Amino acid sequence: MKALEITDLVKTFDQPGGGRLTVLDVSSFQISAGEQVALIGESGGGKTTLLHLIAGLLTPDTGSIRLAGTELTKLSEQGRDRFRASAIGYVFQTFNLLPAFTAIENVRLGMTFGHGHHDPNRAMDLLDRVGLADRAHYRPSQLSVGQQQRVAIARALAGKPKLLLADEPTANVDPVSAESVLDLIHQSCEEENLAMLMVTHSMEVAQRFERVESLEKINHAFSHSES
Ligand SMILES: Nc1ncnc2c1ncn2[C@@H]1O[C@H](COP(=O)(O)OP(=O)(O)OP(=O)(O)O)[C@@H](O)[C@H]1O
Prior knowledge:
Blueprint: E1 2-14, E2 20-32, E3 36-40, H1 47-54, E4 62-67, E5 70-71, H2 77-87, E6 88-91, H3 103-109, H4 122-129, H5 145-158, E7 163-167, H6 175-191, E8 195-199, H7 203-206, E9 211-214, H8 215-218
Parallel strand pairs: 3-8, 3-9, 6-7, 7-8
Antiparallel strand pairs: 1-2, 1-4, 4-5
Helix pairs in contact: 3-4, 3-5, 4-5, 5-6
The structure holds adenosine-5'-triphosphate (ATP).
EC number: 3.6.3.-
GO molecular function, one term: transmembrane transporter activity
Keywords: ATP-binding, Hydrolase, Lipoprotein, Nucleotide-binding, Transport
């Protein structure tokens, strides 16, 4: 079974000046189970929009998004929220940790609806894996930026997802931390047979992937708009 199958996907946005902008028009894009893919492309080309559609945070105008066999576009908003929690791990560029909660509480939140909640030790195991067992009870403001990103990765893995989406996860960390964050993500995907789609602007990061896709190549909407 494919981790992700996209067919005839179109996404448009209202433009502030009137009319609509076709941001994405993707006839076919697939990721196999356990496959790791880097997504590169120009700024404003629609990479984050594509990730948001796959995560069910946005809905397409038309088309199909099938994740581990489930058709996302047939689910209600609440159904998409639940499905996202159980099947998708999302590592945001800006981490999105909840500031009032400690590291381990943030990781536990990642397993609330996921498959990881049956395992009470998983949150601590994941923090240990990202090298932060001794920071479990620190809040995000008490952690370095690289440490916060590692907590965000632990949280994304917590629900035992089928697909990990990562939006430039190393953009806000220093080069040494970036290396360890990337090692950690690759290693975790391999250990859990997890498929991954990672947006990056960095050719150095992209070179670490066997498969690199350029959004401009798969997106027929590239550089034209309609009103
Ligand atoms: N809610 C929205 N309403 C209108 N236009 C939007 C909206 N969200 C995104 N866009 C437009 O869609 C296009 C794609 O945005 P997106 O954030 O997906 O690009 P990106 O490839 O991730 O860019 P970057 O690499 O700079 O982060 C942009 O032209 C943007 O202006």
